[in-house]
Amino acid sequence: MSLASMVLFSLIVFLAAIVQGISGFAFIMIVLIIFPYLFGYTEAIALASFIYLFVLYSNSFLYRKHIEWKFVPLWVVTFILADSIGVIVLRLLGDSPIWYILMGIIFVLIAFYLLFVQRKIRITPNTKNLILFATLCGGINGFFAVGGPIMATYFLTATPKKETYLGTTQILGVFTITIDVIMRALSGMYTVDSIKIGILGIVIAIFGLFIAKKLVSKMNEAHLHRIVCIVIFLSGIKMLFF
């Protein structure tokens, strides 16, 4: 990596870690604004998942007392099946410009939902919807590594307060992303160089999470939520048309 690429990598990981530490999701979505242009699509997905795993471990520890364990078994099993299919398909098809277009479409749709639809359409937190959202989350995560918003969509309704939402989604992320990283490793998506870059990303992310912890009691999360959605939307438009 050139010096400019290294600086860009460090900045996007740091920013993504701060947003993750405050909102509970969006790390992978933010780093994937930049990562595909630095590493190529397949390596970018694998590297983002690797760093994200350690971010999730840290956050789940912070909210460990608020975890709703009753959601974990069914969600994890469903996610693993769907995620495995997504990883296998991606591995078979390989890099292609079409993935940037599809990822752009997903970014735009996610941003639209979070900005305009979330408060109008409430998801009933029953078993059927849990399986549906876990399947969507796993499939999208395996192919695009952006399953977090799907998980957030369900658990914002299924959990009674923010701390429970954060604790539950982060521990689910630990289980599911651990499996995801293992699947990508077995598929040969990691190299010595990518692991070295990943370790650097983890160190940077830890600093970002520390800053997030300091800011969480002072920052207006509603404003941050809107900013993140706008960034996701603009990045999707860029991938679609530029």
From TrEMBL:
Pfam families: TauE. Its main location: membrane. Keywords: Cell membrane, Membrane, Transmembrane, Transmembrane helix, Transport. It comes from the Bacteria. GO terms for cellular component: plasma membrane. The chain crosses the membrane at residues 7-38, 44-62, 74-92, 98-117, 129-152, 164-183, 195-212, 224-241. It is found in: Cell membrane. Coiled coil: none annotated. InterPro entries: TM_pro_TauE-like, TSUP. It is a multi-pass membrane protein. Belongs to the 4-toluene sulfonate uptake permease (TSUP) (TC 2.A.102) family. This is Probable membrane transporter protein. It comes from Peptococcus niger.
